[in-house]
Write a structure and sequence with these properties.
267 residues, alpha+beta, 11-stranded mixed beta sheet, 3-stranded mixed beta sheet, 4 helices, 14 strands, 16% helix, globular
Amino acid sequence: MPRDPTQVALAQPQLCLGQVRHARLRPVHHAFSYGIYYLRLPVRSMGQRDFAARLISRNGRNILSFRDSDHGDGRTPLLQWITGLLAEQGVHDADGEIWLQTMPRVFGYVFNPVSFWFCHRSDGALRAVLCDVRNTFGERHFYLLDHGAPIVWGSELTARKIFHVSPFCQVEGGYRFRFMRSKDERNGSERHLARIDYDDSEGTLLQTSLAGVALPLQDRLLAAALLRYPLMTFGVMARIHWQALRLWLRRVPFFHKPLPPSEKVSR
C-alpha cells in the first residue's frame, strides 16, 4: 500500500564528498582520479523551495548555486518534467522521492558530464534511473534505465551507446551501469557509488566510477568543500581537455564527431 505522504518526513538536500575515477584499457592504459563534491536533491520534497544554507542559492547568484533551468527541458518545473518524461516512457509507478544527483554552479559556472535522476516508488524501491549525459560540444542525451520492475541496488543495467561523448571513442557498443549504496551504522551517513563501464566491439574499453558520502547541506560543510576544491567546476572542464591532450600525445586513435542526435531518450 502506498505510504501516506503526510506521515513521511520530507527528505533534505545533501552534499556529497567523493571521488571520480576513470581508466582506459586500450590501446594504452590511461587512468586518473580526482576529488569532487556534488549535490543530491530530493525533487519531490523540495518543490520550489530554496536551500536553508547561505552559501548556496536556488535560481539566484551566490558562491554556489543550482539553477532549475540547467536541468530537464529548461522551462518546465523539475518535478513536472521528470514525472512527465517517465509517464511518456511507460513508467507510471515512480511516485516516491526523486533524487537529482548533479554538480552545482561554482561562481556561476558548471559543466556536468552526467547527472542522475534516481526515481523511487512510494515504498522506497528504486524504480528507474535517468542519466542526463552531456558533451563539450553543447549536446546532451538521456539514457533511461528501466526494465519494468524495481531495480536492485548493485545489479547491472545496460544501454546501447548512441551519443558522441569523447573523440577517442566511437559511437558503438554499450554501457554497463551499477548503482550501489551503503549506510555507516556509526554515524548514519550514506555512501553512494555509480559505476559506468563502456564496452566496444573488442570488450571493455573504459571503466569509470563516481563515489561519495552524503552529508547534510550545511554552510560549514559547504565552506570546507569550497576550501578544498575552490574552482571545482572550472577544473572539470580543464581536466577533460588535459586528459584529451594526453591521449592525443600518446597517439590514441581520434574519431571526428558524427552528426549530432536530437535531444531524446533512449533505453
